[in-house]
């Protein structure tokens, strides 16, 4: 099938498929005599797994480091991540992404708390700040 049909079957866009190929997340599909990409069911399944992993919070960069292992998930979609094995390249991808997400959640929580301290809660006791002015406009 052509790229548009493969993208639709995988729940993505032709542009995304080309991007994943450029980044090494998906292997280049065979080409027709006229040079067009020709996708099969395995390619679509691989693209679906990539989309699922991206939806879980992994990045294209995370996946490009373990692209050779994506087929394991294609063959066994119910497979779970096991304990990280330092001897296996990419086995810590999920651990690193979880740590990055935790750090971002902490950063955003601190930012939210700082902003909340500057927003008037209606009692008139909050200190004057630019954030208070924005809050007053919203009421």
CATH topology of the largest domain, by name, is: Multidrug-efflux Transporter Regulator, Chain: A, Domain 2
Strand content: under 5%
- Number of discrete helical segments: 7
Return Rg in Å: 22 Å
Number of separate strands: 0
Outline: elongated
Total domains: 2
Order of helices and strands: HHHHHHH
Write the layout of secondary structure elements.
Layout: H1 3-10, H2 14-22, H3 41-55, H4 60-64, H5 70-75, H6 93-118, H7 130-138
Domain HTH merR-type: 1-69
Region (Disordered): 116-139
Keywords: DNA-binding
Question: Key terms for this structure?
Answer:
elongated; 139 residues; mainly alpha
Plain-language structure description:
With about 140 residues, the chain is an all-alpha fold. It folds into 2 domains: about 80 residues, Multidrug-efflux Transporter Regulator, Chain: A, Domain 2 (Orthogonal Bundle); about 50 residues. It is about 55% helix and about 0% strand. The protein has 7 helices and no strands. It comes from Streptomyces phaeochromogenes. It holds the Pfam family MerR_1.
């Amino acid at each position: 099938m052509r790229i548009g049909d493969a993208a639709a079957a995988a729940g993505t866009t032709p542009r995304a498929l080309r991007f994943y190929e450029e980044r090494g997340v998906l292997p280049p599909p065979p080409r027709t005599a006229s040079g067009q990409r020709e996708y099969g069911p395995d390619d679509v399944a691989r693209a679906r797994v990539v989309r699922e992993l991206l939806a879980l919070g992994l990045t294209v960069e995370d996946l490009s480091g373990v692209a050779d292992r994506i087929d394991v998930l294609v063959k066994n979609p119910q497979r779970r991540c096991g304990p990280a094995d330092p001897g296996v390249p990419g086995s810590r991808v999920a651990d690193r992404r979880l740590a990055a997400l935790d750090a971002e959640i902490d950063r955003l929580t601190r930012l939210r708390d700082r902003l909340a301290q500057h927003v008037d809660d209606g009692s008139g006791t909050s200190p004057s700040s630019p954030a208070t002015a924005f809050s007053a406009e919203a009421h």
